[in-house]
Amino acid sequence: MQYTPAAVTLTELDHLPDPVLHCTARELYRHLPGPTLVHLPGRREPPLFVSVLLHGNEPVGLQAIQQVLAQYHDQGLPRALSVFFGNVAAARHGLRRLDGQPDYNRIWPGGEEDGSPEAALVREVFERMRSRGVFASVDIHNNTGINPHYACVNRLESPFLQLATLFGRTVVYFLRPRGVQSMAFAELCPAVTLECGRPGERHGIEHAAEYVEACLHLSRVPNHPVAPHDIDLFHTVAQVKVREEVSFSFGEADADLVFEPDIDHFNFRELPAGTVFGRVREGLGTGLIAFDEAGRPVTERYFAVEAGLLTLVRPAMPSMLTLDERVVRQDCLCYLMERLDP
């Protein structure tokens, strides 16, 4: 689905239209005109901020919010709640983003993509929440590949890690890509990104809903260090992309770069040097380009070609490997991580 650039307007509401409590992500466009920020009162202030559908093919955030609000239909929330419904247009078509449209989780303040109408809109969301004060920020996502549930942080400070381990013991620290929602809101409050498994998995919806409800009941975010035995902490050291001019497939031979057909099973496994990712056509090199967290190319640090096979040069742990070719083109093939001593 092709995107037509146009002015984008933020809708701001002090109530949630009732149909939004029951509709699917694909139906949301019928009830919200576009990106919408909804403020709901609660017994405590300042509000918890939750962003959902920054990627239109990741409905778990909407489903979790629907589940939480259904429990409080006849009673007040324990804490005020502000919810940002992001890429409603892409959600209508079940896509991460429309072709030509900016990624709603790469355009927040502090990023490199700040010239679009969408970037101006999310800056407006950011400034609205700055003026209201924010208790904590939660950005909720699905994965397209096989991944465990985990939380991401952009700062290794105790309140951020406490908020992350409230979701689970697996925590990923990253500084790239820039322009993500959690990195922007880290300037205002403890902020996390939740990765809740693949779309449609009931456990992901339940887990995200339970987490949002737990945050609403917190009187404060703990400030003491997380016990080392309560956290498995990983640091993202590289983002890996397929070069634009290189064709690729998963298990099908008619492409420049043919990945293993079940490559997403590598996610969150500590792989040894020499692990084979796929086969490469002669003369292409690796067919990949990898960047470290400062944006420097580091492809040869992690990948090599041996007898036509694409292999890891050093031990690493991938995340977000997916078999969705569209997502690989719109975002990346994967991230590489190393374990951190908490």
For the sheet with most strands, the description reads: 12 strands, mixed
What is the helix fraction of residues, given as a range? 10-25%
User: Can you tell me the CATH topology of the largest domain?
Assistant: Aminopeptidase
The CATH class of the largest domain = Alpha Beta
Mean pLDDT: 95
The counted number of beta strands is 17
Radius of gyration (Å): 20 Å
* Number of structurally distinct domains: 2
Q: Span between N and C termini?
A: 44 Å
User: What is the CATH architecture term of the largest domain?
Assistant: 3-Layer(aba) Sandwich
- Give the amount of beta strand, in percent: 25-35%
Chain oligomer state: single chain
Which ranges are low-confidence, i.e. pLDDT below 50, for 5 or more consecutive residues? Answer: none
Principal-axis shape equals globular
Structure write-up:
The chain is an alpha/beta fold and 342 residues long. The protein has 2 domains: 11-230, Zn peptidases (Aminopeptidase, 3-Layer(aba) Sandwich), CATH 3.40.630.10; 235-340, no CATH class. The protein contains 8 helices and 17 strands. The strands form 2 sheets. Strands 1, 2, 3, 4, 5, 6, 7, 8, 9, 13, 16 and 17 form a 12-stranded mixed beta sheet that branches. Strands 10-11-12-15-14 form a 5-stranded mixed beta sheet. α1 packs across α6. The radius of gyration is 20 Å and the shape is globular. The model has no long low-confidence stretch (mean pLDDT 95).
